[in-house]
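Subject: sequence -> structure tokens, single chain

Hey, anyone have a minute? Need the predicted structure for the following. Not urgent.
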Amino acid sequence: MVGDIKSCFHQVFVDENDHDAFRFFWFPNNDLEQSPADYRMDVHIFGAMSSPSIAAFALRRAALDKETRADLATVETVLENIYVDNLCKSCTSVKQAISLVDQLRRLLSSGGFRITKFLSNNKQVLDSIPPEDHAAAIDDRQLPTHKTLGVFWNAETDQLEVKIDVQQNPCTRRGVLSMIGQCCDPLGILGPFLLPARRVLQEACRLGFPWDKPFSVRGWAGRIGIGLCRHSLSWMHSLLLEVLRLLERR
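Reply:
Had a minute. Here:
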């Protein structure tokens, strides 16, 4: 199951002595005709480099204080299964998941945090959670595909998915590198299928091709370049088919 801590950074107050670090100017009542006024944020903000680490400390402190007498599994979930404001957790049974959600909500609430946008591959678990705390895309017919930390999870089939939309670029070192970079793959699922493209890039570097010089140039290097160009295009078109075959076998 997955979840999200609502406005995580804004739940952590800034020490009064540090308010000036978040000083800014803005127009009173959003009236652009007035002169800008001096304001200070009293909570941590999105965009500040310090906010993720401070919010993580506050979450850990809420877990370790155990004001709600949460069990060890719930405390470990906060410590090990929350990345910034995203929860990703697997449970061995429906009963365990329902208990964990209940304790987790109470534990985080004791520290001023509200966890919401829950999604699970089991509808019994979802039924135990108030509808207002469900992920927005949930309906009664089919569970959605949800993106968490760059990974697509199909809650209906309980499978991880890879979505590929590689835009064709010129057959150059820069173009091939760009096509490789378009494949978002945090878990490395596509690793074996990206190797042919990396070999194309490696060979182009070995032959000394400039960044923006097309592989299909004339001469001895040109014949090799044409092969590299065909190889890169072949890789791009076959990548999606290979991934689909892999997922079907699983």
